Amino acid sequence: MSSSNRTERMLEEAFKIRGRDKKGRKILRIVGKFFPGRELMSAGQGGGEETLRSFLERRVFPELAGAPFVVVYMHALVQKSENFPGVTALRSVYEALPAAVRDGLRAVYFVHPGLQARLFFATFGRFLFSAGLYGKLRYVSRLEFLWEHMRRGEVEVPEFVEDHDEELEHRPLMDYGLVESDHHHRVLDDPAMDTAASMYSLRCIS
């Protein structure tokens, strides 16, 4: 399988439109661990941005334009070196959103955020994104809070996300970075806030 085909397959796994929330709006589920950040970065300057933008324009935006929708982003076990393409790439994609898609976005639910991500966006979120988008961002610390907005069967949750949720339930200090996960991964909540944590942190509803 060629590198471009592999990246396309990974993006298909990361971005899926399936189900509706309790208000009948489409759900765009994004799984951070499936995001091919390293592959996009290796495409060279501008190449990763173009690849990501092209995929979204072909496979995602057409299904969302003209209708209200919500985003569910799952952050469990994301690794900075593997899954993050850079702030510049993600910012450029946000700026390239068609008006019909941007106007239809009603909420972004960030599942399992970390302390560093929360702190970063509390400080810089309004500078990186428009006030309208920032106001739609919601932190969801546990899956049980997500089910207040959508039924369980409407959004597919990978097994490792459920396992991470259970681990957090039994070790709540992991939410504050005081206890490490049993999974030996360095995630986006590394103290190096000038890179990865900037994109994936949103606002708490729990």
TrEMBL record:
Residues 8-164 form the CRAL-TRIO domain. Pfam families: CRAL_TRIO_2. It comes from the Eukaryota. This is CRAL-TRIO domain-containing protein. It comes from Ensete ventricosum.
